[in-house]
Amino acid sequence: MTPATSLFSPVEADLQTLADNLKQLVGKGHPILCAAAEHLFGAGGKRIRPAIVLLISRATMLEQDITPRHRRLAEITEMIHTASLVHDDVVDESQMRRGVPTVHSLFGNRIAILAGDFLFAQSSWYLANLDNLEVVKLLSEVIMDLASGEIQQGLSRFDSSISIETYLKKSYYKTASLIANSSKAAGLLSEVSQETAEHLYSYGRHLGLAFQIVDDILDFTSSIDTLGKPAGSDLKSGNLTAPVLFALEEKPYLEVLIEREFAQEGDLEQALCLIDDSQGIQRAKELAEDHAKQAVDHLSVLPPSESRQALIKIADYVLSRPF
User: Fold this and answer.
1) Strand, helix or coil at 100?
2) CATH of residue 9
């Protein structure tokens, strides 16, 4: 499988600059936040979201270099994403993320919440300074969508009646909105046509949905070493994802286990066996493949380039993460 970072070769230098800038942007003047920022942005991560922004920026600016505003947009995108992770980890009471201790496990809930709020506020301030009202509206909507997705997930815990459409809407809010709107924003900063901007939005939307569906499959198929958390963690907490919703159509008893919130000994293990014995995971894979294909189709509006090719390969990478 191609490692994510090797896909980003057209923007490798841009991403290094971004990593250096993020610590500077966030940490200045706040010792605790500086320590949290060093932890957050020093932990690495694949940087897929800012890489997509930078690749779209380069794919739409073939005759000239990308602007400081493109670079700042990529930084804002990573700041918003990171802020949402800090808050998610507090809500989920996660001690580790990708093998690294979470901010709240190191600094406490109070600092983690404040750090997440500070990142959202910082990103909003830098966003306003781009002086592009349409871009400001797009990324402000993302921040609202992230909160909506988290609330929707909290309200639908252990609700076995939710539909695939409801699941996809929540997945859009939590994951795809940021990728879709930042992709479109990068195009707008390059002054592409409105039609091209909509295609870039659709690329990000479908890619984000594919990414989230695959993430949800990995919750059932990955080892704790790969995932950084036990298999079935989402199911245990009542977050019903695509593999579960598809499995429910075949395995009626799964609904009984979910409705009683796995209260009896062996309930969760039995539920995992029922899902494994169904077409749920396979159907979820097919759904992810469909969205990844749709994402790539929307890139046909861009002229051929190394950056466009990298954007296509990212869709392949999303599907090839180890199941």
Assistant:
1) strand
2) 1.10.600.10
**Angle 35-51-3 from CA coordinates, rounded to 5°:** 95
Nearest CA to 281 among 250, 315, 313? 250
Q: Which two tokens stand for residue 36?
A: 């949290």
Burial of 312 (0-12, 13-18, 19+ CB in 10 A): middle
Paired tokens of 316: 């392949």
- Which residues lie closer than 8 Å to 86 by C-beta, 6 or more apart? 40, 102, 103, 104, 112, 113, 115, 116, 119
User: Which residues make Cβ contacts (< 8 Å) with residue 135, sequence separation at least 6?
Assistant: 73, 127, 185, 188, 189
Per residue in 31-76, pLDDT tens?
777 666 666 766 556 789 999 999 999 999 999 999 999 999 999 9
Tell me the residue range of the domain where 270 lies: 4-320
pLDDT of the residue at 209: 98
Provide the pLDDT for residue 1: 46
pLDDT given for residue 58 in this prediction:
98
- Whole-model pTM above 0.85? yes
- C-alpha 94: how far from its chain's center? 17
Q: Which helix (H) or strand (E) holds 292?
A: helix 280-297
**Nearest of 78, 317, 322, 77 to residue 211 by alpha carbon:** 317
Residue 249 has pLDDT above 80, yes or no: yes
Ranges 137-146, 193-202, 226-235: which has the least confidence: 226-235
d(CA 225, CA 34): 29
Tokens 């159907």, residue located: 283
**Interatomic CA distance for residues 243 and 163, integer angstroms:** 12
Query: By C-alpha distance, which of 132, 287, 127, 311 is closest to 214?
Result: 287
How many domains in the chain?
1
Find the distance separating the first CA and the last CA of the chain, reported in whole Å. 12
* Cα angle 1, 176, 44; round to 5: 50
Q: Decide if 47 contacts 15 (C-beta within 8 A).
A: yes
